[in-house]
Hints:
single chain
Amino acid sequence: MTTTATTTAEQLSATTLLRFATAGSVDDGKSTLVGRLLHDSKSVLTDQLEAVEAASLSRGHEGPDLALLTDGLRAEREQGITIDVAYRYFATPRRRFILADTPGHVQYTRNMVTGASTAELAVVLVDARNGVVEQTRRHAAVAALLRVPHVVLAVNKMDLVDYAEPVFAAIAEEFAACAAQLGIPEVTAVPVSALLGDNVVEPSARMDWYGGPTVLEHLETVQVTGAPDRLPARLPVQYVIRPQSAEHPDYRGYAGRIEAGSLHVGQEVRVLPSGRTSRIRGIDLLGRPVPRARAPLSVTVLLEDDLDIARGDLIAPAEAAPEPTQDVRATVCHLADRPLTPGRRVLLRHGTRTVQALVRSIDSRLTLDGLAHHPAPDGLTANDIGRVVLRTAEPLPLDAYADSRATGAFLLVDPADGTTLTAGMNDAPLAPAPAAGP
């Protein structure tokens, strides 16, 4: 990663971090937009640019094909599409960024779930010639499902519609109606030409009717909310440390990454699912004791009492601990080729804990043409979004996904071969309400 010449280490340490994901239908120009963003913000190494220029020349292009900056797999470059999630790290003097470039093909929608699961903003591309299509609504639905707080609608290829303001306005209005129906809180629409660079990093003189921010300007200034350290503390235990050495004969520490909130010495905590309480006697960070630690640091916690704690348990503040449950109602996105059907036995992974579970029912499936729920389908196929009811063999301390994205999410896994089947969000209804009829 390179930064602009004016960006110093001190400036970077003072900037905030924004995680964002990109999504769009095939041939909407998503990889070109990402490449243009990296190129025009001077976040591309010289040798990378030279390699792209050479590859572009060998393919008969007159100039560098900026899509090659992100399409790294051989199959991606051969087919001109994005297949896997590509992560890129770059920075400007105002902010640091982690970008997840996700595929546009319907069969790779599952990859968008991966890329957007930790994103605070999603850039959804639309071809100005085609407008809002089913895959656009699918990407919007995934962003809503994952509670991504900010969405940018990039109406691309405006150069192919003569930079017409009515075309942009109609697409922005249609997408805004879809977003409102899904419950997306904020949408910013930007008309762009990724190929020519209009409104990506620099304002476009060819669209003087647009007075809003460029894509980069919005990324640099959007307010990042919902920081994990502001939530009630959650520490899933990954490992119990017991050296039993001459130097540490009685040391018993519970190691893990703080997923939300902060912990401090003397704090009363509850261990779940057992429900037993104790107080924090010490916190070790990088081998040294500290009085307090917050998300997303990895720490070792020592308690005043010797409790039966193992990997998979959760340490939380006694006054703000989640209530363990065996009945899980969730919105899910099915990722596997094999359908998810009622009565199927699966493994449920939540944090560091894995328990057996039964799919008791599939209450509804979301159709993306009219954004309506269809009750009680026979099952969910790959890329389907639906509502399910699960019964777990052991109680789980699940948060509501709307309250905590980290500790309200889970995965369903095939117990036979360990394949990830489904991504779930606990107690996360997706607007609109289920339809009355079949």
